[in-house]
Amino acid sequence: MKTLYSPAIGCMAVACVAMTGSANATDMDYERAMELAVSGVVESWNGYSFVSDFTPANGNTNVLSHDDYFVSGTSGRLSLPLGDSLSVQQDVELEMTGNVYEDQTGNNYIYSYQMGTHLSFRDPGMGLIGAFGGWGSGATDGNTGGLDVADSLEFRFVGGEAQLYLDEFTFYVQAGYLDAERTNTQNQDDTFRDAVFVRGVGRWFMSEVSRLELEFSYADGDADTEPDSHTVVEWGVRYDTVLAGLPIIGDTPVFVGYRGARFENEDTPGNPNGGGGEQGQGQGSTEEYFDHTIMVGTSWSFGGDTMKQFDRVGATLDLPNFGRWVASGENLD
Fold it and tell me: Are 317 and 201 in contact (CB under 8 A)?
């Protein structure tokens, strides 16, 4: 009996060792896959924007002379690990509208450029916490002193952010401070400035090659000289997927999206620059407009085998387009 059982026991032992080794190899592969990675992404998109429900104060119609225009954007992000859990990410983003090519007499958003830096602690199996900051510039086609000249804008921002990872979902929240000024005119008060903001993002990874993203932002600050209360409400939806096996270029990541926003300026009663009535008397007034953008784009990335893995270990921190927000103060001047 002893000689019969010894080979069986030996085979079982070898099998257990093999299974343990296989499990350990699988665990090691998973752990390596969930380590912070050197990663980056470049995106480019084109779209169409249109303005609706514009309500200027004082019957002033010499603003936002374009209620629709083409728009395009390009962005890049690079994330570098600084250890097992600490990483730094650099963002660059440029957005340009069709208004840059035309001579206007009213205020129109022309372009914006911004750079941001993120420093964060991340556990790919749980979440992330960190801080960000940066600066940018932009322009609107304004009517300054009776002359049709571009108003240059500069802005700065700083804030904190956090992410929570739950199975196929990522929840992302940011909050911070935004300030801005005009740089080529003496009157710098029309720009949206001295604002606090909050932004929330939800991502659903529907498969290894598809993702649905929803976002919402709110900002409250000042504009004009009194100053007036100025608010920004922005929302958006985006769907990413991969077109497989395209001729010549092969598998190609693409996305489609929509971005909407409501910009409102509530004139302070007694503000001579607003709708407060003769010599600054009265109850004030409210100016507002909605901006809608539909976009189609493509992206290229490295540092993750799937969209979900890239989200948990790579360069997936991002920022709202602060240049559009800042320009809205000029648009409602």
Answer: no
Whole-angstrom distance, CA of residue 214 vs CA of residue 202: 5
Strand runs labelled E in the chain: 39-55, 68-81, 86-97, 109-123, 127-144, 147-166, 169-182, 193-207, 210-223, 228-246, 250-266, 286-302
Two tokens at 302?
């490295």
Query: What is the predicted pLDDT for the residue at 269?
Result: 59
The residue assigned the tokens 């990874």 is 205
Compute the distance between CA of residue 187 and CA of residue 181 in angstroms, rounded to an integer.
Answer: 9
Token output for 229: 């209360």
Residue 19 has pLDDT above 50, yes or no: no
**Around Cβ 177, how many Cβ atoms within 10 Å?**
15
Side-chain-facing half-sphere of 129: CA atoms under 13 Å: 1
Mean of per-residue pLDDT scores for the chain: 82
* 261-270 mean pLDDT: 78
Question: Do the Cβ atoms of 200 and 216 come closer than 8 Å?
Answer: yes
pTM of this structure: 0.82
CA atoms within 13 A on the CB side of 52: 6
Q: What's the rounded mean pLDDT across residues 182-194?
A: 73
60-92 residue pLDDT tens: 554 566 678 899 999 999 999 999 999 999 999
Phi, psi of 89 (to 5 degrees): -130, 140
Residue closest to 191 by CA, chosen among 138, 153, 164: 153
Say if residue 205 is exposed, middle or buried (CB neighbours under 10 Å; 0-12, 13-18, 19+): buried
Residue 187, CA atoms < 13 Å, CB-side half-sphere: 14
Could you read off the pLDDT of 95-108 as tens digits, one per residue? 999 876 665 556 67
Is the bond into 272 cis (omega within 30 degrees of 0)? Answer: no
Return the SS3 of 296.
Answer: strand
d(CA 135, CA 84): 29
